[in-house]
Fold each of these.
Amino acid sequence: MPAVLFALYLVVEIAALVVVGHFIGVGLTILLLIACSGLGLILTRVQGRRVFEQFRRAAEGKVAPGTAVADGALVALGSVAMFIPGFVTTLIGLLLLLPTRALLRPMVSAVANRRLDRMSMAGGYRGVVVDPAGDVVDGVVVNEYYDDGKGAGRPMLDDK
């Protein structure tokens, strides 16, 4: 499946490159690809600083942590997309680096919350009891053994 997706990606990028090259020429197409990479570098720097500022504000409690993490993930994906050569990935990178990413933020937060819930359930509780209402109750599980003396096993406590 990954090979098919990669082949599809190559076909789409080459088709976009041929179409743009046909309309504006080969030289301008190459210059446009270089300019898009430069723009990606500038946007990555500016938006990266904003994301780190949001992380700082989230640590102070001024911004919801989910918002900061979602923005960080979107900026990281946009930065990677900007440096993959091609017009389609550059367009995707621009959409993720510009303020239009606010439209995708709720979806990214929902997906991240679902994955975190699955991961926390799969890892076990390890001494923490989670109430169905969502409250976390710290506690210690104490194992008690009861011996009524009627079994065939040795008594747990020595009788006199």
Amino acid sequence: MAKNNKKNKISYESEADVLTVEASSKPIDYAMEIGNVVVHFTKKDEPVLFEILDASKFFTKAGSIMKKSGASRFLYNKKPILA
């Protein structure tokens, strides 16, 4: 597997409450909306851009679900998981 040294670009538009993650600079051909997430793809079906709509609600709900499931202990551990 080739190593990708390019950093993902992440931006947040507070007025629209949209978090955008650019995973690639490849040209976008089409997009699909899956719940509150819009995923943009290339002609070869590679994901390029992710938009999380109502981002503040999305992350509040995700945090609540993680807390209930016990998964949050991995995020808020006092010691680094990978050292």
